[in-house]
TrEMBL record:
Protein name from the UniProt record: Formate transporter
Superkingdom, natural source: Bacteria
One cellular component (GO) term of this entry: plasma membrane
Major localization class: membrane
Organism listed in the record: Acinetobacter pragensis
């Protein structure tokens, strides 16, 4: 798969973070919009397969196809820029400031959310014949997912909030490994394999991904899910996004940077 050693692709990771911070606003919005839309389609595809087969693992096996496509196209997810852009600041790249990083995160969030919302409405039309019929089995399944992953956590109060935060951490630990995986190889097949494995793991384990949820929860509300917009933001999107940030940055980004870019002094025994 034309594998690159960690010392080689770690530098590419920092370069990618710097490049994203210098992109034009228009390009950031378009790329993040398309990333959200493609990931949303992959999510509804995976849930559809799981409902049709009754085997959720099959949906998890197939979900990464959307993730692989969007990263090969150079599109951006919020979970990815959470990891890449701070490394450019840590490496003291020219012109990289926290103001620029936060602006980038905000633009990517808006683009991802916009793409997910558009796909949510389009798929709602598909599954209800233009709102002329009741939701089908897939629509109802996603509606119940929305309820379980908001009100289900709220039942446990602070313990529920901590649980979803940790699920967000574990999620972006895996997803950010997928982002890095795209840089581990110089061939398309190698990139696919390296991205596929950790993303499949996150989906199969039911961890929480902030961008996937930008589709699932609006779609669930359209399909009749019994929870509010505030329930979604307080008991899902906010703790999940924070967990994604902490998990991806510390468990993937900083671990990679400190051991392969800014390594500790060599010991001579």
């Amino acid at each position: 798969m034309s594998y690159l050693a960690p010392a080689e692709f770690a530098q590419k990771v920092v370069d990618a973070g710097e490049a994203k911070l210098h992109m034009a606003t228009r390009d950031v919005l378009i790329r993040s919009f398309m990333a959200g839309a493609i990931l949303a389609l992959a999510a509804v595809f995976a849930v559809t397969i799981a409902v049709q087969t009754g085997v959720p693992l099959i949906g998890a096996l197939l979900f990464p196809v959307g993730f692989c496509m969007l990263y090969l196209l150079g599109y951006d997810l919020l979970t990815g820029v959470f990891v890449l852009t701070p490394l450019a600041w840590l490496d003291k790249r020219p012109g990289v400031t926290w103001k620029r990083i936060l602006k980038n995160w905000g633009l990517v969030f808006l683009g991802n959310f916009g793409g997910c919302l558009v796909v949510a409405f389009l798929m709602a039309i598909v599954y209800t014949y233009g709102f002329a019929a009741e939701p089908n089995n897939v629509g109802l399944a996603i509606a119940h997912i929305g309820e379980a992953r908001t009100l289900g956590y709220a039942e446990y109060g602070f313990a529920g909030w901590v649980t979803i935060f940790i699920r967000g951490m574990l999620c972006n630990w895996m997803v950010s490994l997928g982002v890095i995986g795209a840089m581990m190889s110089t061939t398309v097949s190698g990139k696919f394999i390296a991205m596929w494995m950790p993303v499949m793991l996150f989906f199969a384990m039911g961890f929480e991904h902030s961008v996937v949820n930008m589709f699932l929860f609006p779609f669930a509300m359209i399909m009749g899910g019994d929870f509010s917009i505030m329930d979604y933001f307080i008991w899902n999107e906010l703790p999940v996004a924070l967990g994604n940030l902490v998990g991806g940055l510390t468990l993937t980004g900083l671990a990679l940077y400190t051991t392969h870019v800014r390594t500790a002094p060599r010991k001579d025994f």
